[in-house]
Amino acid sequence: MNASDLPSSVRRLLGSLVDASVRERIAISVAALFASLLVGAVVIMAAGLVATCKEPFLALGGSSFCYDPWEVYYQLFVSPFLNDFNTALMLKETTLLLFTGLAVAVAFRAGLFNIGAQGQLVFGALGSALAVLWGAAFVPTGVVGSLVLIPFGLVVGAVVGGLYGAVPGLLKAYADANEVITTIMLNFVATNVAFYLVSTYFKDPASQSVETKSVPAVAQLKPVLGRFESTSFSVWALLTGLALVVVIYYLLFHTSFGYDMRISGIQPAAAAYGGVDAERLVVGSMVLSGALSGLAGAVYVLMVLGRWRTGIPAVGFDGITVSILASNNPLGVVPAAFLFGILKSGSLSISFALGVPKQLVGVLRGLIILFVAMPEFFRMVGLKLGVGDRQPVATDGGRPVEGGDDDE
Amino acid sequence: MNEPVVELDGITKRFGDVVANDRVELTVDRGSVHVLLGENGAGKTTLMNVLYGLYEPNEGEIRIDGTPREFDSPRDAIDAGIGMIHQHFMLVDPMTVADNVVLGNEPRSRLGFTVDREAAREAVTDLTARYGFDVEPDAVVEDLSVGVQQRVEILKALYRGADILILDEPTAVLTPQEVEELFDIFDELTDQGKTIIFITHKLGEALGVADAITVLRDGETVGTVDTSTTSKRELAELMVGREVLLDVEKPPSSPGDVGLEVSDLTVTDDRGVDQVSSLDFQIREGEVFGIAGVDGNGQSELVEAITGLDVPDEGRVYFDGADVTTDSRRDRIEQGMAYIPEDRQHRGLVMDFELLQNGLLGSQHDPDFAPGGRIDWATLRQHVEDIIADYDVRPPNPDATAKSLSGGNQQKLVAGREFERDPRVVVASHPTRGLDVGSVEFVQEKLVELRNEGKAVLLVSSKLDEVQQLSDRLGVMYEGAFTDVVDPDDVTEEQLGLLMAGQDADGVTSVPAGDFEAEAEVGR
Description:
Strand order of the largest sheet of chain A: 1-2
Distance between the termini of chain B: 56 Å
Low-confidence stretches of chain A: 389-408
CATH superfamily of the largest domain in chain B: P-loop containing nucleotide triphosphate hydrolases
Radius of gyration of chain A: 24 Å
Largest sheet of chain B: 6 strands, mixed
Mean pLDDT of chain A: 87
CATH architecture of the largest domain in chain B: 3-Layer(aba) Sandwich
Helix content of chain A: 55-70%
Largest interface: A-B, 39 and 62 residues
Number of helices of chain A: 14
Helix content of chain B: 25-40%
Number of helices of chain B: 17
Low-confidence stretches of chain B: 517-524
Oligomer: heterodimer
Strand order of the largest sheet of chain B: 6-7-8-3-9-10
Mean pLDDT of chain B: 88
CATH architecture of chain A: Orthogonal Bundle
Order of helices and strands of chain A: HHEEHHHHHHHHHHHHEE
Structural class of chain B: alpha/beta
Number of strands of chain A: 4
Structural class of chain A: mainly alpha
CATH class of the largest domain in chain B: Alpha Beta
Number of domains of chain B: 3
CATH class of chain A: Mainly Alpha
Distance between the termini of chain A: 16 Å
Radius of gyration of chain B: 25 Å
Strand content of chain B: 15-25%
Number of domains of chain A: 1
């Protein structure tokens, strides 16, 4: 596919996306958000027209509308900030997605599509839970216990996730196996092996479900702030996530290793020329990505459940969307994860407060994410095709330059 | 004659803040060969893309046969009788010549559902007969040589009814013989009333084939000259804007110890075919060893084995006597190897990175630039600014992206980065390919300077005048081995041409490829 095959109108549109400045891109995202709300409102009205209810909010002639778009959006976007329970829910989701969003973004930057964040998270969570249960016997209770056990649990989660991330990395580096395929498959492996291990060896005998024993209270991440008492959100975990955003940003853009990752991601031939060992870089990047996913698993165990239980939510998969929304920039992961947190908490409020079916809420969330992500997506397409004219097309003996993507 | 068929009047094309074409004037007469001459980045291709409808000009008017026209897309330009042959062919390799020529405008069978292959074949046969092209309509494109593929591209344009043919640097990919054949085709086409606009930066070609030459510099028209009243020197000055030395000065060499040695080197490709077979040579410090040959005779594979991008199947590579055959690319950089790759846009530069970050490529683990693994931006910026100043990289902006630079300036940046490493061994693969005279002069002088400073320099180039001028010894490569190693001052271009074709050339005196035992004596 060549840019010159496209109709000029399409070329111009893609070109203007490619040429957009950071500020314009943020403006586009905000505009897309509002557009999605408008389209969503139409969907809400239409769904309300079809549904039957006792008290429609609006009756026009013979037809009645059950759901009030204003009310729905109010619950979706405002209620997460209104009471502490909803806010904690929002921040819990944001925290977990910071880790997995970063995990996927780091791999993307190195040119690797890590769909296996979920599997790495599941194993990281299990490793963390078992390590803390084992280690609890050796440490005293109280603050000392927390200071030892919590970092220990987090580190073990990261190590286990990193090791599991190394598997597709090694397969890609030394056996030329596409990481997209292997990571998808390893997700199933992780889920099922973890299920087998827990149900056979580590099951809490007192419990009906497949879950480990609860980790001791000293090892659990506490809410810290009084207003989040008895919620499963910890300010410490959020701060850890935000600190990691800064660390990963620094790693990518200010260190030799990050430089190696970025050139490998956008122009592998130049990376080889510059002395990057492609095999080691692939493995290293996947280990880092897996470690971040494993950390998400550890935080899930120590902050949310206090134990490993089968059926871990798809935080790893949501991390992929978060990363795309953030155009794989670590700093962009923060607002993207936050948007997901709002939508998560807000849609629960809708289910509680309004009689709106949860499928409809799912449609609204999907619309919002789709609209906000699409401009970035098409921008990537435009970059790939080499359209846009902020930069004059450099010529090398008359040949238009097509960026770095024409590698054999 | 002298009836203008294409008139570009005051064409201005801007990309953001950059003005690629600034009120360019161009008048082309019917039935002439008009050369558009200029350095890389002078705006030649941009101007032709405007004429071909790929870009919309910001200002100015295009007149074809005196009628003002506006082109929204190449389709409009084709309808107006304009055809453009890009340097990169747009052919479908597994299809036949006839299929490729009619692609997009296929003659239909009576019902209109299928392609009338017979009619297509006939149309192509008619065209080849009419213009005297030696092209077989049933041949499959991927089996054809580059020169013939180019003729297929020209046929495609003619089939679509082009009266005005634009050729963008058509000779860059051709052998000298193929260039001659192309110019014969030009004659045939102009005899039949076609008009040819030919983009090049090669002075000799411009003088050899053009009726008129328009010179562009920095996006502006410098002037249009009549071929019969101009000279190479005048054209070079018009292009560059200052006097240019067309010959590089080179003092006699004073070779020292062996800096680079290749011993019994064999590299095979994926199919197990030898690309380089049992090659031996030594390069002394203070010496340029040139390798001439038609592209694809194992030069790239040899260079990759020496620079560490590939591991040879047999044989050894030594730096200063130390075996580096299995050392990684990074090890070799750290041991003092500078390497100008043949494809700067693919390997030598990260196109989406700024010059600043490109200055780090290869040095990202050097403690001077990244102490403790953390990049020292201030030092790097100073270093890149020095390169930009010393190597005259334009625009002199470390924050511009590599892809926004012209080819010559990209190459100057690569050369500056590599040479400023203070290397012991320099490998330059086609270092002046696609560059304009000013940049060619600059890069060549730098290579001689490095040699004079006592570096061992390996120069691979398919430009005969370049390898002949710069080398102290010259190996001619054919199918992975040297046909001969000669003294470049003692050989004619004709003799080199024969050696490059794998034949013996009478009367050539061989020189040794290195100090080997008797069996390694050259002159296979």
